[in-house]
Structures are given as C-alpha cells and as structure tokens.
C-alpha cells in the first residue's frame, strides 16, 4: 500500500522547483553583481603590481604646499608597473641603500626584513649609462641647475644657463635632487624629480636618473647624506 504516495511526489516536485529558483536567483545575483561592479570600475581595477588608477591618482596627486606647487601626474601616461610599490627584494645591501636598475627602469630603496620600496624611473640613454657604487654627497630642494661644459658643447642652446638656472617647475632638476659622489668628488650624476610622466620607463637622460616628483619627494625625505647608492650595469 502506498499511503500518501501522490503527496510525496508533489512535495518532491515543489522542493525541486524551489531549489532551481534558488540557483537561478543566486546565478542572477552573481552576474548582476559583476556587471554592477564593472560599471563602477571596481572589478579588475587592481593591477598585478597592486595599485589601481584610482589609488595612483591619490598617490600622485597635486602637492600645493610646495614652494612651487606641483601639479597632479597624469597617471594614464605612466605604465602601471612603474607606480610606487613595496615588494620583496633580496639583497645583501643594508636598509636605506638606494639601488638603481637601469635595465628595468627601477630605483629601489632597501627596507627592513627583505623588502624594498620600488619606484619607476627614467635613466641614461645609450652612450650615457654608467654603473658602480656611489653615495649621496649632498641634497637639494628646488636646486639651481647648471649644465656641465660637456653638455654645453653637445647642446649649445644650454649655454644661456651656464651661470645657473633658478629652481622651479621648468628646471630640469625639479623639486628634489640627490647628488651622487665617489671618493669625495661629484660624479655629475644625480637622482632628480621629473614632471614628465611620459619619460618614466625610458632612456632619455645624460646619465642621470629621474623619478616622478611625488616619488622623488618620498625618496628624498628618507635619504640622508652619505647614503650608499648602487647603480647596476645596464
């Protein structure tokens, strides 16, 4: 005897329909959520290097309190891999050491416990690359730029600044400068601030190394005179 068999079938059918409804609702929610988040730019916004364009816009925003107010960087003109980032970095160099990697267009500041702050950079063009150990012999804020004699010979238009170009946004050294020395003598090379985002990740200089102004201020503030600088071979 099948007591209540018909009702049991109906209960099973109702349960199956309810289960399907739940699955459909869940699937719709997930798809809808993805579409909604995508519309607000929240899906896929973080890069493999860990910084979204929205985050970069904050990090590289304007610096109005400077002697010469620094405008925001147009971050759309910078490859995201060159945004400032803290990474794992194996080195025997002491914390605080600056390491320049011209082949990959990066500057590292060695941190504690196997980490480093990594900055995107521009570097010397072919024929102007150099490598070796140096140190920060002096520092400058909105420094006067004086082109070396060798540059004036190559580029006569620089002669008008032979006595020095005052600091400012148009000055090639920008907001901050670290002057590199070897054995007590100035090498003529610097790590400087650039306001040209398009140059990051390229070899364009006469051997100097440029960081975005906001990155350079960050590095400058944490770098005392006598800090070791290692420039790797290109």
Automatic annotation (TrEMBL):
Ranges for domain L,D-TPase catalytic: 96-232
Keywords for the protein's UniProt record, in alphabetical order: Acyltransferase, Cell shape, Cell wall biogenesis/degradation, Glycosyltransferase, Hydrolase, Peptidoglycan synthesis, Transferase
CDD domains, alphabetized: YkuD_like (cd16913)
EC number: 2.3.2.-
Domain of life assignment: Bacteria
Gene3D superfamilies documented for this protein: L,D-transpeptidase catalytic domain-like (2.40.440.10)
InterPro entries per UniProt: LD-transpeptidase, LD_TPept_cat_dom, TAT_signal, TAT_signal_bac_arc, Transpep_catalytic_dom
Family that this chain belongs to: Belongs to the YkuD family.
PANTHER family cross-referenced by the UniProt entry: L,D-TRANSPEPTIDASE (PTHR30582), L,D-TRANSPEPTIDASE ERFK_SRFK-RELATED (PTHR30582:SF24)
The protein, known as: L,D-transpeptidase
């Amino acid at each position: 005897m099948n007591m209540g068999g018909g009702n049991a079938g109906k209960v099973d059918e109702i349960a199956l329909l309810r289960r399907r409804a739940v699955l459909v609702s869940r699937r719709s929610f997930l798809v809808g959520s993805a579409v909604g988040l995508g519309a607000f730019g929240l899906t896929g916004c973080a890069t493999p290097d860990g910084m979204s364009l929205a985050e970069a816009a904050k990090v590289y925003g304007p610096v109005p309190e400077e002697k010469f107010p620094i405008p925001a960087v147009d971050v759309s003109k910078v490859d995201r891999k060159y945004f400032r980032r803290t990474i794992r970095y194996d080195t025997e160099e002491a914390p605080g050491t600056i390491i320049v990697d011209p082949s990959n267009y990066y500057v590292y500041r060695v941190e504690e416990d196997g980490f480093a702050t990594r900055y995107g950079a521009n570097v010397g063009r072919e024929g102007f690359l150099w490598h070796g150990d140096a140190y920060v012999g002096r520092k400058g804020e909105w420094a006067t730029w004086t082109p070396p004699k060798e540059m004036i010979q190559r580029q006569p238009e620089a002669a008008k600044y032979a006595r020095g170009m005052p600091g400012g946004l148009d000055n090639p050294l920008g907001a901050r400068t670290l002057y590199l020395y070897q054995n007590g003598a100035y090498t003529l090379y610097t790590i400087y601030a650039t306001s040209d985002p398009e140059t990051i990740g390229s070899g364009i200089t006469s051997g100097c190394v440029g960081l975005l102004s906001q990155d350079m201020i960050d590095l400058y503030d944490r770098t005392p005179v006598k800090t070791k600088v290692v420039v790797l071979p290109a």
